[in-house]
Amino acid sequence: MGMLLTRRAEFSASHVCCQPSLTAEQNRQLYGAAANPSGHGHNYVLEVTLEGEPDPVTGMVYDLKKLKDVIQQTVIEPMDHRFLNYEVPPFDKIVPTTENVAAEIWSRLAPHFENGRARLHNVRLYETEDLYVDYAGDRS
Amino acid sequence: MMRVTRRYRFAASHRLHSSQLSEDENRELYGKCSNPHGHGHDYVLEVTAAGPVDATSGQSVQIPALDRLVSEQVLQDFDHRYLNVDLAEFQALVPTSENIIRVIEDRLQSRWQETFPGEWPKLETIRLRETKRNLFELRP
Predict the structure, then answer these.
(1) Which residue in the list B23, B39, B72, B80 is annotated as catalytic?
(2) What is the pLDDT of residues B32-62, one digit of tens each?
(3) Residue B17 annotated to the active site
(4) What is the per-residue burial (b if ≥16 Cβ within 10 Å, else e) of B52-84?
């Protein structure tokens, strides 16, 4: 394995975890207070980790400024200060659990790191300080 | 595969002192941690469970169920206790963080299947932070 490089970003968003095919009681059991119908918000913290060998000329695994811009354009701008269920597809159709949001972020980021020196290694999404999800794509 | 990590806290006191060692040996081995009346920490416990995302719920781990398990199996017995005195496991076992993490693993595994009846999620990692400077990790 090469060197790992992690960039952190934050966004604030609201969501509600409710699966329409289930009863209110089943939703309550699955999601707890996250099923409350009007929704609630979090300060999400995203950590994007790339893996690769540092370029012998630049000494960098990846240009941090470029990485920041990719995260900004694909994740932060569309999701920051939004109600995920109503404003950010595919969460009009799938429940915006931490797992699903992490997987969606992975699929938005992955195409940007397919042909370069660095590849997308892991996405860590903190919903709160006390709850986070790690996703490393289908291969993991 | 999705890895979900949940963080918990408990405050407890302990004393590191082995009846199989002399006073001098205990002092040499455990230092201040061997002081006769014990001392306490704000422990931070991280539990990582891993599994595929369920298509209906959008979850790989039901957080309310995990919270209940950790609360009933660990926090209720450990929080605001003197581990050496109040817990059966530490009557004959020195409550080092290594031993505490093993006991926590046993307690979680003993009701894991009942809490999560399917094949997934699996208990993947337990991390115990005794202080900001000491971190212990167990992968069952």
Answers:
(1) B80
(2) 999 999 999 999 999 999 999 999 999 999 9
(3) no
(4) ebbeebbbbbbbbbbbebbeebbeebbeebbbb
